[in-house]
Amino acid sequence: MSWKNIYNERLVSAKEAALKIPSNSRVVLGHAAGTPVDIIDAMVSNKESFSNVEIVHMLCLGEGKYMAEDMDGHFRHNAIFVGGNSRNAVKEDRADFTPCFFHEVPKLFKDGLMKVDVALIQLSRPDEHGYCSFGVSSDYTKPAAEIADIVIAEVNDKMPRVMGENFIHVSKLDHIVETSNDLYEIPLPKIGDTEKAIGENCATLIADGDTLQLGIGAIPDAVLLFLKDKKDLGIHTEMFSDGVLELVESGVINNSKKSIHKGKMISTFLMGSNKLYDFVHNNPSVELYPVDYVNDPCVIMKNDNMISINSCIQVDLMGQVVSESIGTTQFSGVGGQVDYVRGASMSKGGKSIIAIPSTASKGKVSRITPFITEGSAVTTSRNDVDYVVTEYGIASLKGKTLRDRAQSLINIAHPDFKAELKAEFEKRFPKANIIVNN
Ligand code: COA
After folding, report:
1. Could you tell me if residue 433 is inside a domain?
2. What is the CATH number of the domain that holds 116?
3. Which protein residues touch ligand 1 with a CB less than 6 Å away?
């Protein structure tokens, strides 16, 4: 049978597709801007038809209606990353959180530690050969679809066709729902003076020809502002957003010096505005691969001069980095932070940077603290940490003693908190002469 006949035979409405999901099953949802829309709406509107369905998801864009209080007993969310839409549900124990390095999520599926009964995904329209692109989310979405007992796909005519190892043939889809939904967009971050100062400090650690991993938000975008005079930069990253577009257009990012995937920007998902989604459509210079490849530290390290830039919530005086929880409250997840910290560390000439404003909560708390808050999870260990950057400067911690680390971190802390940090330093290192700049 031709793929077109298969496609037509498997077309169903969103409600019919939703009702194919068995009760007591595990459903893995496509990630971030690849989150399905119409079928989730149909599931939620027909909640009485479902009991005890586990919904596994990472970054939830959209409303996350399946996490609402009245979904109890019908759907329970299992988060591998907590975002704004799932934070309260996890905090109130209406949803679960499973810690896992991003690159290992597909392994959870493959090893059966998290068996995938249903993959609910969003795809581009099929090409002339019957292949749909996973569009902006290859990550764990493609591996989930490859292993699921039942694959249900929204085929969205607005999903860009993004290259790489990012395709599935329509014959692998069990049920197909045609949609025409705008992709979720994320607002452009606001870059203030603090972020600019952090960006400028980070940029001093980046040389011509380096390959970059940048996360999302104001700090990565601020770093990009200070790279306009660099040459031949490359991208190998978990995700990228609109911030890189200007540097691609000006030729600063040309991927010419990368050790692997020369000439290509490599990512595992994309999230930004429609400008970004238009840019990546059918663009041979952008390739997406599943996260167990892109974020594998052994793949990341193959790029010489790999620079990773990520952020955190708290760093203690030993260099323990807390990035995903505030006390026992799960705020986000490890995501790809440790994947890239380790990959960059193993890369010849690589560096990993934790870039943070020196304070949080409108200046009321220092992010550099004597101790991490009780209950917080250490994300990047003191053995892994490399550079920590604030608006006040750069602390280089790798290979440094506990005493030197503490001294360097105090020097880049906010002046309002230096006295408290210095007092702790003197308790811990009574024989040291601390030199604190202002
Ligand atoms: N004590 C108390 N509150 C704190 C705090 C601290 N030490 N640090 C941050 N907060 C609060 C902030 O005040 C803010 O609250 P508000 O919105 O009410 O003001 C909130 O927590 C978020 O902090 P902020 O640092 O502004 O968030 P962010 O959006 O820049 O994200 C991380 C920072 C660390 C949460 C985010 O980078 C992350 O999740 N990292 C781990 C995953 C990762 O690195 N992935 C790889 C890259 S994609």
Report:
1. no
2. 3.40.1080.10
3. 215-217, 238-239, 310-314, 323-324, 326, 331-332, 335-337, 360-361, 365, 367
Within a domain: 17: yes
390/419 same-domain check: yes
Residue nearest to atom 16 of ligand 1 (CA): 361
Tokens 């299992």 map to which residue? 78
- CA pair distance 232, 240, nearest whole angstrom: 17
The pTM score is: 0.97
The residue type at 411:
N
The question of whether 238 is a catalytic residue gets the answer yes
Kindly give the confidence (pLDDT) of every residue in the chain, 438 residues in length, as a single tens digit, with 9 standing for 90 and above. Answer: 899 999 999 999 999 999 999 999 999 999 999 999 999 999 999 999 999 999 999 998 889 999 999 999 999 999 999 999 999 999 999 999 999 999 999 999 999 999 999 999 999 999 999 999 999 999 999 999 999 999 999 999 999 999 999 999 999 999 999 999 999 999 889 999 999 999 999 999 999 999 999 977 899 999 999 999 999 999 999 999 999 999 999 999 999 999 999 999 999 999 999 999 999 999 999 999 999 999 999 999 999 999 999 999 999 999 999 999 999 999 999 999 999 999 999 999 999 999 999 999 999 999 999 999 999 999 999 999 999 999 999 999 999 999 999 999 999 999 999 999 999 999 999 998 877 776
For residue 226, the domain's CATH number is 3.40.1080.20
Q: Which amino acid is at 62?
A: G
| Residue nearest atom 19 in ligand 1 by C-alpha distance | 361
Which of 144, 179, 214 is the last residue before a domain boundary?
179
- Ranges assigned E (strand) in 190-292: 211-214, 234-235, 239-240, 265-267, 269-270, 286-288
299 and 170 housed in the same domain? no
